[in-house]
């Protein structure tokens, strides 16, 4: 991972700071907790760590509401802790990517507080989207946009003006047409680059620029993140100009530092626009994340992704889980078609089998892969959290189908024993189910059948064989229905997504399998929902 284009095939591990490790016993994870667990991540075999926001924040949206972009929230530590974390990571050979939230600030950000205080007509209001309302007394919102978390995307302040927030009311959207906003974010980028970070994950990268005049949605479909036409608040062409400017700043710094876009666009082709050579380096592949465990559909999205990325020269990326969606162990435990948010635990054993198989498939594809903390333990979503402990604003604002994000944010079990299974000494902000004792890092370490050891082995193979993540193509092999088979140089991957065992050729020396595989007379019987890796070398 010393190469300058390290990011082209990097495996990047997402740490959700409040739920990773708690060093001070307050039930909330923190930077010092993460620092002390870095050796675990090095041993797991990932290349980089992406940290979800740890900045000063009232936590109305778990830190995605930033009040001060240059400060660490006291709940997570301070700037010295951030410095120590970045430095220790580097010494262990791990890169650090931080989250940047440029679409909106917290309503407790100094700019917003002053804008509200100064009243209508204040130039400070132009850094956000303030508007008079409609109707006789301005009692109706300025347009018909809806918040992603439910309800109108506008909130009225005391003097009668309304402000725009695509997410919670505590997250007012910046007006990126105002030069001060761009200046401020270019300065924030430099602040963290000077701190030594290796890159940024850009939150809502598709949202910064809104269509001129903030036109009504009108006949556009209801707000959906994928598979829709272009919304007046998402994926506007103007957003690319911002990233071209950011890229110039990044390239002033030594070493190869990167941007990864969180851009929910309707198609992989539109996602590819964000990773043109003079813009960002990577973009999450949400089409892949949203695909069911089905050979035909997977093959379709893999082909479309590789085709879309080839002309722009950016690596494909693959992701199965993050802090916004139901963990894939639980998604795959349920019938397809339920989307990324699911309400039932489903058939857990089936879900885990498929999750393990999906991991080996993902790690065999060319490009970069993202792992969300806890998936290496096979953690399921916690689907029965009580309302009293939930904190996700989407849940409380009635985002319906999309409002179930606490279940994938439950703190990591590190040990079999203890009040929070080794997460910390003072409990955990969301309760962990008792079955998590046996899913803990301690319980799985050294058990060759465990999901943790499967991840360790797979990542070790990937490190030994750099050709695994390299290139931009897969060579499909003939395979029975429900099965994906492809060759990449001296490497063959077979993923059986069907509910039955299948017979395929034994393609070489068996490297790794997510489930049972029996070889005889040059053939291999691959169990249902199982992925196998072979090498012909
Ligand atoms: O998410 C952006 C987004 O559009 C969705 O992932 C959305 O949050 C989810 O589907 C709603 O249920 C980013 C962050 O990843 C998310 O955690 C934040 O809440 C959001 O931006 C606002 O900052």
Task: Tell me what you see in this structure.
- With 537 residues, the protein is an alpha/beta fold.
- The protein has three domains: 6-102 and 179-458, TIM Barrel (Alpha-Beta Barrel); 110-164, Oligo-1,6-glucosidase, Domain 2 (Oligo-1,6-glucosidase, domain 2, Alpha-Beta Complex), CATH 3.90.400; 474-535, Immunoglobulin-like (Sandwich), CATH 2.60.40.
- The chain is 24% helix and 16% strand.
- The protein contains 14 helices and 21 strands.
- It has helices at residues 31-36, 38-44, 79-91, 110-118, 179-194, 239-252, 268-272, 286-289, 295-309, 328-331, 348-362, 393-396, 441-444, 451-464; strands at 11-15, 48-51, 55-56, 68-72, 95-100, 130-131, 154-156, 162-164, 199-202, 258-261, 282-283, 317-319, 368-372, 475-476, 483-488, 491-496, 502-505, 509-513, 517-520, 523-526, 530-535.
- The radius of gyration is 23 Å and the shape is globular.
- The chain binds 1-O-alpha-D-glucopyranosyl-D-fructose (TEU).
- 1-O-alpha-D-glucopyranosyl-D-fructose is lined by residues 61, 64, 101, 148, 167, 203-204, 225, 262, 264, 323-324, 394, 399, 402, 405.
- Belongs to the glycosyl hydrolase 13 family.
């Amino acid at each position: 991972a010393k190469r300058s284009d390290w990011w082209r095939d990097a495996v990047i591990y997402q740490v959700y700071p409040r739920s990773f490790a708690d060093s001070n016993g307050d039930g909330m994870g923190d930077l010092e907790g993460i620092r002390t667990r870095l050796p675990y991540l090095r041993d797991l075999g990932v290349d980089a760590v992406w940290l979800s926001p740890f900045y000063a924040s009232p936590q109305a949206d778990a830190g995605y509401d930033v009040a001060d972009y240059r400060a660490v929230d006291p709940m997570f530590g301070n700037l010295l802790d951030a410095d120590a974390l970045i430095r220790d990571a580097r010494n262990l050979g791990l890169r650090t990517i931080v989250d940047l939230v440029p679409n909106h600030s917290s309503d407790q950000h100094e700019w917003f507080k002053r804008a509200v205080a100064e009243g209508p007509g204040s130039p400070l209001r132009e850094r956000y989207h303030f508007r008079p309302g409609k109707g006789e007394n301005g009692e109706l919102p300025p347009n018909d946009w809806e918040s992603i978390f439910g309800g109108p995307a506008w909130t009225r302040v005391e003097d009668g003006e309304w402000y725009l927030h695509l997410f919670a009311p505590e997250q007012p959207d910046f007006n990126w047409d105002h030069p001060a906003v761009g200046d401020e974010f270019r300065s924030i980028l430099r602040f963290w680059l000077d701190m030594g970070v290796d890159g940024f994950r850009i939150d809502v990268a598709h949202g910064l620029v809104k269509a001129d005049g903030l036109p009504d949605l009108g006949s556009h479909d209801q707000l959906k993140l994928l598979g829709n036409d272009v919304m007046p608040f998402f994926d506007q062409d103007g957003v690319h100009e911002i990233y071209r400017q950011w890229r110039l700043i990044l390239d002033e710094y030594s070493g190869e530092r990167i941007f990864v876009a969180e851009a929910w666009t309707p198609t992989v082709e539109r996602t590819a626009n964000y990773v043109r050579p003079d813009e960002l380096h990577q973009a999450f592949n949400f089409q892949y994340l949203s695909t069911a465990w089905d050979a035909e559909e997977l093959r379709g999205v893999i082909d479309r992704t590789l085709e879309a990325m080839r002309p722009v020269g950016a690596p494909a990326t693959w992701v199965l889980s993050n802090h916004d969606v139901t963990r894939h162990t639980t998604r795959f435990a349920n019938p397809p078609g339920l989307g990324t948010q699911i309400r039932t635990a489903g058939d857990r054993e089936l879900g885990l089998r498929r999750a393990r198989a999906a991991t080996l498939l993902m790690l065999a594809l060319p490009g970069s892969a993202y792992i969300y903390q806890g998936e290496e333990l096979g953690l399921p979503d916690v689907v029965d959290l009580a309302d009293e402990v939930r904190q996700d604003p989407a849940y409380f604002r009635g985002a319906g189908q999309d409002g179930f994000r606490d279940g994938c944010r439950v703190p990591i079990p590190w040990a079999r024993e203890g009040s929070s299974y080794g997460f910390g000494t003072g409990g955990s902000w969301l309760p962990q189910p008792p079955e998590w004792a046996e899913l803990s890092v301690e319980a799985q370490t050294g058990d060759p059948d465990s999901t943790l050891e499967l991840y360790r082995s797979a990542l070790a193979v990937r490190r030994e064989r750099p050709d695994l993540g390299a290139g931009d193509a897969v060579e499909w092999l003939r395979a029975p229905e429900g099965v994906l088979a492809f060759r990449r140089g001296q490497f063959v991957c077979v993923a059986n997504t069907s509910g039955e065992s299948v017979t395929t050729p034994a393609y070489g020396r068996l490297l790794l399998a997510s489930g049972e595989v029996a070889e005889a007379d040059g053939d291999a019987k691959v169990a249902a929902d199982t992925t196998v890796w072979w090498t012909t070398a």
